[in-house]
Structures are given as structure tokens and as C-alpha cells.
Amino acid sequence: MLKEQYFRIYISILILWLFSITSSSINSYLTYIFILSIGIIHGTNDLEILLEIKTKKFNYLKTLGQYLLLIVLASALFILSKELAFLLFLLFSCHHFGEQNFHTINVDSETKSVLLYFTYGTFVFSILFLNNFQETLVIMQEMFAIKLSKTYLIYIAACSFVIFICILLQYAAAKKKYTILAEEVLYLFVLFVIFRASDLIISFGIYFIVWHSIPSIIDQLEFMYGKASRQNFIKYLKKSILFWGIGLLTIGILFWYYRDSILLESILFGVLFVISLPHVIVITLMNKFKKV
After folding, report:
1. Whether the Cβ atoms of residue 94 and residue 118 lie closer than 8 Å to each other
2. The domain containing residue 284 runs over which residues?
3. Three-class SS state of 59
4. More confident: 177 or 204
5. What pTM was computed for the model?
């Protein structure tokens, strides 16, 4: 775990250095390419993961039906209220990002686990938005007609950080692993510096790819095949290629059809929302099954 975190720091710093010597337009294009490749691929094996979940613990057909139903409900929700869809997207993403980082930590209750995941993700999003506040403000106003308050965002960041630290401190004391607290604070400081040094899309891209998607793929490989290896990654890619292609084709068609429309960004967000919500549920099921 420690080596993986250090690897993320090294890669993040390397990316920042490379981006510092290239133009902003090239940096943005590269970020989008990584998001559309690694970012999408990490969520394309949901059904394969469901197949790996034993039927004695989770009914596969029932879970598959719920998965498809969730896609339909997410689509309907976005059509009815994209503002509410965005709020749910943020809430689920906060939990999802935290779960990816701390799913191997067993605190003494399910409630504390959820709080640990959620407050970590909330703090990460908060410092991401605060360090790129003007960009975030424009996007919120144009896409969702939401006027974001910097003061409230600071309060959210502070509260989430305090709760996160309290839960982690309790865990560290119970397990006699006090170094984990210092390590996590260090990693969050590194993320703060990264977000401070780059614009919104690059900041999000670095976190989403290096700190979330790649570790998630490693976890999925270990769950599906027993270990993360080059051979197993190739198998993973082969199983991903169909859904990844469908995802890229859908995004490409929407981009082409709405390229001159003010609805483009909202529609692309809708696609992201619809495919992300079921993925979050599947990964939670996977992590629960691993603990059984």
C-alpha cells in the first residue's frame, strides 16, 4: 500500500513536470485522452465482476436486473433534473473515491467505514474546487445554474477533514498504526499542491487516472484473476474492449451531433452520470464480497 502511494506521488510529479514544458492545449488534449482511455476502461468490466460474485452471497440475476434498472433510473433522473443528478453524482463519487483508497481498512463499524470513505472523497473534491475556484464557478453556473459559495466550500472542506482525521485516528490507535495518519495527511498535502499547480481538468485528470482508475484496475485484476499481472491485464482489456468501444462511440456521436450546441457539456455529463452510478454500486459489492 505504501509503495503504491509513493508511486502515485512520483507519477503525479512527473506528469506535472511534463505538462510544465508543453502548451496548455496539448496538456488538455492529453488529459482527455487518458480519461477516455484508462478512465473509461476502469469501469467497463462491471458485469464481469458481477459474474465473479458467488451466487450464494449475491443473486446474480437479481443484481444484474438491479444494475440495468439503475441505469434506467439514472437516465430518467438526469432528464428530470440535471441539478439533482449532479448532486447525486458528487455524493456517490465522494464515497467511491474514498472507498477505493480505504477499502482495505477495517474500522469497527459500517457507519464509520461509510463516513471515512465519504469524508475523504468530500475533502478531495473540496480542495480540487477551492484551488480551481473560478473555473469551477463558471462550470457550475453554465451547466447547472448553481452559484457556488467559496465560504461554504471552505466549511465543507474543514468539516470533512476533521471527521476524516478523527475516524482515522481512532483506527490508528486501535491498531497501533499511528504512521498511517501521518502518511494520509502527507498524501492529501501532495494532492493539494497538485491541485494548486494545475488547472481544473488537469488536476481532476491526474487524480482520476493516477490515484483512482489505475489502483481500481489493479484491485479488479486481483479480484477477477487472483493477482495483477501483465497477462491478466491483457485478459482484462480484451473483456473491456466491447463496452469501451460502445462508450467511446456514444460519446463521439453525441459530441459530433451536439458540437455546436450549448447542450453539449450537459449531455456528456449525463452520459458520465449514467455509466458511473452503476459502477459505484458494483465496486461496493465487490469490496463487500472480498471481506466475506
Report:
1. yes
2. 2-291
3. coil
4. 204
5. 0.89
